[in-house]
């Protein structure tokens, strides 16, 4: 498993737990709203994750990009579909998105390496 992905997952889980422990009610409600926003509805979950991915790339949030790439792969989206969505994010966000696009592609490579069965 990629060190980057392992560290990301462990830190996210640990800090989300900590925030739920010490955060005010409004923060807990926001986290719940965020979780519910990505549940299936009129739009299916993979589509919502793609929307989250593109928005995260345009907003230049590497943690969010990583999270949505993981979720998109869990939802069965192909690398081709993800790279097309990342291209849309680049077009919308412009050249300032390029460093984040690089990291997104590195993350996709890490996810792919993690899924390779060991011999």
UniProtKB/TrEMBL annotation:
Highest taxon, organism lineage: Bacteria
Key words, A-Z: Oxidoreductase, Peroxidase
Residues covered by the Carboxymuconolactone decarboxylase-like domain: 28-103
One MF annotation (Gene Ontology) recorded for this entry: peroxiredoxin activity
Pfam families xref list: CMD (PF02627)
Gene3D superfamilies listed in its UniProt record: AhpD-like
Listed name of the protein: Alkylhydroperoxidase/carboxymuconolactone decarboxylase family protein
